[in-house]
Amino acid sequence: MKAAVVVFPGSNCDRDCKVAVERSTGASVHMVWHAETALPPDLDLIVLPGGFSYGDYLRCGAMAALSPVMPEVRKAAERGVAVVGICNGFQVLCESGLLPGALLRNSALKYVCKPVDLDIVRPDTRFTRAFGSRRRAVMTVGNGEGAFFADADTLSRVEGEGQVVFRYADNPNGSLNDIAGLINTGGNVLGLMPHPDRSFEAELGSADGALLFQSLLETA
Asked: In this structure, are strands 112-120 and 102-104 parallel, antiparallel, or unpaired?
């Protein structure tokens, strides 16, 4: 498997993602600076990592969504390449229109960092098939603006089209419908607030994040 991690100014989980993908899958992982206008050829996976891209100015992910590399990420997504946006990366995907909705301030107006239980709503996606018959996963959240929001029509469409992949068992941030992660209608773009890159080995408290990355080996 061949993967790329996009690095924005303010990313702080980019190397975590690189290590997580490498150790989970044995993939070759390229680090791509946000100002690049081309991606490595023949990618199987693109990761938009967590952090505080552009210092979270304007809105989280809003400036990163306009980075020179993002048109290439969009083209890759349109070709069917798997794209995962984690935490700040989820915000970037929403701001760039690759996923619906937006991420708002946590309902308690506080930064939340802790392991959370997730219900696996869609075990049949290319990002979750390695979970097998399991319907619960544990990953770590770390965000101040992680509350998923969408207008009523969009939320109804997201639910109706089966785009919700993960839900919080105990909602830590006020996300509508307990949404922790969702997928595009094409099934190849996933955004999630919990960090699989902080939960990919037992020594980290959970190895469940590795299963997310390992799910992609079947389509690489």
From this structure: unpaired
Q: Give the integer Cα–Cα distance in Å for 127 and 24.
A: 13
Interstrand relation of 112-120 and 136-143 (parallel, antiparallel or unpaired): antiparallel
- At 58 the pLDDT is 84
CA-CA distance, 77 to 121, in Å (whole number)? 23
Taking the CA atoms of residue 57, residue 176, residue 129 and residue 87 in that order, the dihedral angle to the nearest 10 degrees is: 20
Over residues 47-61, the pLDDT tens digits come to 999 999 999 888 899
Under a CB-based contact definition with an 8 Å cutoff, are residues 146 and 103 in contact?
Answer: yes
Are the C-beta atoms of 196 and 208 separated by less than 8 Å?
A: yes
Measured distance CA(166)–CA(75) in Å, rounded: 26
Contact 139, 198 (CB under 8 A): yes
Q: Helix 208-215 and helix 14-25: axis angle, to 10°?
A: 70
Sign, CA torsion 102/44/216/36: negative
User: What is the pTM (predicted TM-score) of this model?
Assistant: 0.96
Kindly give the residue spans of alpha helices, DSSP state H, lying in the chain.
Answer: 14-25, 70-79, 88-95, 152-160, 208-215
List the catalytic residues: 87, 195
